[in-house]
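INSTRUCTION: Work out how this chain folds

Token vocabulary: learned, describes local backbone geometry

RECORD BEGINS BELOW THIS LINE
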Amino acid sequence: MGEITDLIDKIKRYYGFSPSEIRGLLVTIFVIAFIISFKEWGNGDEVDIGSGIFNLIVAILITAISLFIHESAHRVSSLYVGLRAEYKPWTFGLIVGLIIAFLSNGRIWVLLPGGIIVHHLSGHRIGWWRYDIAYVTLGMLALWGTLATLLFALLLKVLNNLVSSYIIEKALLFNIALALYTMIPLPPMNGSKLFYGSRMIYVFSTIFIVVTSALLIIDINPWLSVFSAFIVSIIGWVLYYSYIERNIWQGPFGGMKG
């Protein structure tokens, strides 16, 4: 009970976004919304300004809600362990996404929004085994953002099964794409932090997210998708350890013979 009370207090005190973060999020939201609505400005070579603006507004709302959930997961999980997550947009990644959108006429989404850096909250990590920030801790904090996005996609899938809607379907596809892209082990994306923190956790998480996403796209029951993905992830994790990781890791004295 005390941990929950402490977390609520930290959320009240430290959850807010700084002005620089808000500017970065606004730029990210607009660029990504433009990317995912690029091909919806008319049919063929005909441009429909009214339809385009409407679809851009819908895309902005979808992106804003999705990134809010994604970054809130980063923020709350970081506060729980006495750290504060700060969002940093990836300018190069956003530019690449825009270029691909123009070259593909909006048929290919490349979503590389950015990542987080974490800061100590003075006094709030006292009592933790590691006062400093371990790589695996940073990786797990980054992973929570992607898992929150995947969970949101699952909820959207359930909602879409009940009330089919173009907007819900687009939000579902966007969150699936966002979850997959953020697991790319390319700095500063979430996947890079988890990969360097723990390859074993990265492999398990990536298989789980990829399989769940694939099953959601082919219209398998959401909860069956999660269960199936979990089983496949365990199998993939065991195979990875048996044939790859065990051969890579030789311990702190690898290669030395007595």
Observations:
- DSSP finds nine helices and two strands in the chain.
- The beta strands are 83-89, 114-120.
